[in-house]
Design a protein that fits this description.
The chain has 13 helices and 35 strands. It is of the alpha+beta class. It folds into four domains: 114 residues, Beta Barrel (Lipocalin); 144 residues, 3-Layer(aba) Sandwich (Rossmann fold); 72 residues, alpha-amino acid ester hydrolase ( Helical cap domain) (Orthogonal Bundle); 219 residues, Galactose-binding domain-like (Jelly Rolls, Sandwich). About 4% of the residues have low confidence.
Length: 713
């Protein structure tokens, strides 16, 4: 639920992420050294980031000091430590300029977080960032029940023309919002010019009231009832009345939890709300988003996130100081982990324990049941490898799309999907983990889709040309445009799991044959490489990119079953929803089933670090007790084949010629998902040590993956 647009603003300087506060902090090092102007002038120029070639750092000489900025970072003064070495961020980042034998500056070596990179010099002509100046105002906005919400209003200094509002509501604090930070975080939108409104929701940071995680949606016929939708309505009404020189239009956007809040702005909206963009929105945290997936509890994430959100009025993340795998294995169950923490009375932790199945508590918080029409133009945004809320935008689009009114631009829903982790579209990068997409896809999205969307609906400016869906197709690494998602021309083909470990499009002759493995809760399959840091560990965490980690780290485990095709003799493109249809049995009375569709790269040294790489394309878990319905868990008959059908979610991917398609099945994904004891108990979160037992698992031939195969070009 946390990403760069909802936390304190972050600034990327040659791959080093610095908070604005840190960059402005006093140096913790020795007194600065005087460097003569001629030397400083020799360092001035543009330098290309070695890690991210689309980031250009500009160093300027100004009198007797040096400063640095980029297109998406404000000016930071540098402190000289020697004639060629300077620091920023309170000494946390070092820049050392290097010269060749002739004394010509060739580049700057950046050292941060014990990592080092060399950024070559392009030329001696530094380029300013063209940030637009904004005035800042702090206000308290009254709601219909008398509670007042804290907000920051930013207005461009350089125009008196009426402008639309662009609002983000958040539980993560808004004190960071200022002229530099809005330009750094929302560069394209800030340069276009809006009246930005950043608001703390109820019970968070500077706002009054009580915070409720994913506050339930109330009956809006009751004039006294409040939820996030009514708070948005009241905020808009106040802004229109009290903020001068506005054009009467409001847009709302947000990522993750603020994405959920943006979606709520479209439920019985204020008439002035003319465009919303729920980006990676929390939609249903039991079925497919943050806290559960198909009934399987996301233990380590639910632990870390709730502890960080509900321990105080301000978000504080990064609690565990040991390998989360060991911590949760030793705790035994989530209930016991809560007791060990000393914080077991947190409201949402109690909700996990009291509502392990899908009941009215979770349903009342789910957004999809309230999306009965496209009330305002809506741009849904998601990432293929979003580790937190990948399901939400695809589900919201799927629910809204049947209500699309193509002939009426004011009642349209659009979808943008790309190769991003959670919130990754807000960054300037062409990478995700080991993957290189060849271009800064997030920059392309913001400049070509997001900014034109809001400019069209809030300012009547032309340029928004998405008809329905824009998807970045991985493998081919190019943007595709579709009239709907999934496209009409795809054909479902079943890829069968054969008893000999192969994959093929032909139905096996013997569907009673099987592949077997033993799942032992005492030795669960880790979901990513160990050690597993806290979700938002301050020193860094593999959480952000675990969905693209090379799955070869599981090689040698006997509890991960694999099937592969022969090397493909032509490209295979899948575009749409991928579905797993397993026929499986367990010797226990409960079981989890994890299915992963993987692109296996060829063993080819020319591919560098991608040689032999096993890249998950789509994946999902299903808790077997819910095979007959999410509200009523039932024991699984031991040693009896049962069918499990569940979505692995959407993809737009090309398995290139020479690659192999791989499918893996396992019965644990720990500690992200809590261990299934494999003995049916009423509440897995309260399972006792004696309940956890090894089980023999069988995956029967005839099990298959439903692939949405696109025609070859």
């Amino acid at each position: 639920m946390l990403c760069s647009r909802v936390a304190a603003p972050l600034v990327l300087l040659a791959g080093a992420v610095l908070s604005i506060a840190a960059c402005c902090a006093q140096q913790a090092t020795a007194d600065p050294v005087h460097v003569d102007k001629a030397t400083l002038r020799s360092y001035a120029g543009r330098y290309r980031s070695q890690d991210e070639p689309d980031i250009i750092l500009s160093f300027f000489e100004d009198g007797d000091h040096l400063y640095v900025e980029s297109a998406r970072s404000p000016r930071f003064d540098l402190t000289a430590q020697s004639s060629d070495t300077f620091t920023a961020g309170g000494g946390s980042v070092h820049y050392r300029f290097e010269k060749d034998a002739a004394g010509k500056v060739t580049g700057v070596r950046r050292i941060a977080d014990e990592q080092e990179s060399f950024d070559p010099r392009i030329d001696g002509r530094p380029e300013p960032n063209h940030f637009r100046p904004y005035d800042r105002e702090e206000v308290m906005i009254p709601m219909r029940d008398g509670v007042r919400l804290h907000a920051i209003i930013l207005r461009p200094k350089d125009t008196q023309a009426p402008l639309p509002f662009l609002m983000q509501r958040t539980p993560y604090g808004v004190d960071w919002a200022a002229s530099d930070s809005i330009n750094a975080e929302n560069t394209e939108l800030a340069q276009s010019g809006y009246i930005f409104v950043m608001e703390d929701i109820r019970g968070r940071y500077g706002s009054q009231g009580t915070f409720v995680m994913m506050r339930p949606i109330v009956d809006h016929h009751d004039p006294h009832a409040v939820d996030e939708s009514t708070d948005t309505y009241d905020t808009v009404a106040w802004l229109l009345k009290h903020v001068s020189r506005n054009n009467g239009r409001v847009g709302v956007l947000g990522i993750s939890y603020p994405g959920f809040l943006a979606a709520e702005a479209g439920i019985d909206p204020h008439p002035a709300v003319k465009a919303i963009s729920p980006q990676a929105p929390m939609t249903d945290v039991w079925i497919g988003d943050d806290f559960f997936h198909n009934g399987a509890f996301r233990q380590s994430y639910g632990y870390d996130y709730v502890l960080g959100m509900e321990s105080s009025k301000q978000a504080t993340f990064g609690w565990l100081n040991e390998d989360a795998y060991d911590y949760f294995l030793h705790a035994g169950s989530f209930a016991q982990a809560g007791k060990i923490s000393g914080s077991s009375d947190l409201p949402t932790w109690k909700a996990f324990l009291d509502h392990p199945s899908y009941d009215e508590f979770w349903r009342s918080r789910a957004v999809q049941y309230h999306l009965n029409s496209v009330t305002v133009p809506t741009l849904e945004v998601g990432g293929w490898w979003d580790q937190e809320d990948m399901w939400g935008p695809q589900e919201q689009y799927a629910v809204l799309e049947p209500h699309n009114q193509p002939g009426d631009p004011m009642h349209r829903v659009f979808l943008a999907l790309g190769p991003w982790r959670h919130g990754g579209w807000s960054q300037t990068t062409r990478h995700l983990g080991a993957l290189d997409f060849g271009a800064p896809v997030g920059d392309e999205y913001r400049a070509q889709i997001e900014a034109p969307f809001f400019a069209y609906y809030l300012k009547d400016q032309p340029g928004f040309d998405v008809k329905n869906t824009a998807a970045f197709q991985t493998g081919s690494d190019r943007w595709m445009r579709y009239d709907q998602w999934p496209p009409k021309n795809v054909k479902e083909r079943d890829l069968y799991l054969q008893a000999d470990g192969s994959l093929g499009f032909s139905m096996p002759a013997d569907t009673k044959a099987f592949v077997a493995y033993t799942s032992d809760p005492a030795d669960p399959v880790p979901y990513r490489r160990r050690p597993i840091e806290a979700t938002y560990a301050p020193a860094g965490s593999g959480w952000y990119t675990w969905l693209v980690q090379d799955q070869r780290f599981l090689n040698g485990r006997k509890d991960v079953a694999s099937w592969t095709t022969a090397p493909l003799d032509h490209d295979l493109t899948i575009t749409g929803d991928v579905v797993a249809d397993l026929t499986a049995s367990t010797s226990g009375t409960d079981s989890d089933w994890v299915v992963k569709l993987i692109d296996e790269y060829p063993d080819d040294p020319s591919l560098g670090k991608m040689s032999g790489y096993e890249l998950m394309i789509v994946d999902e878990i299903f808790r077997g007790r819910y095979r007959e319905g999410y509200a009523h868990p039932e024991a699984i008959p031991a040693n009896q084949p049962e069918e499990y059908t569940f979505s692995l979610h959407g993809a737009d991917h090309v398995f290139l010629k020479g690659h192999r398609v791989m499918v893996q099945v396992q019965s644990s994904w720990f500690p992200l998902y809590d261990r299934n004891p494999q003995t049916f108990v009423p509440n897995i979160m309260e399972a006792q040590p004696a309940d956890f037992k090894p089980a023999g698992q069988r995956i029967y031939a005839g099990s298959h993956i439903e692939l949405p195969v696109a025609p070859q070009p």
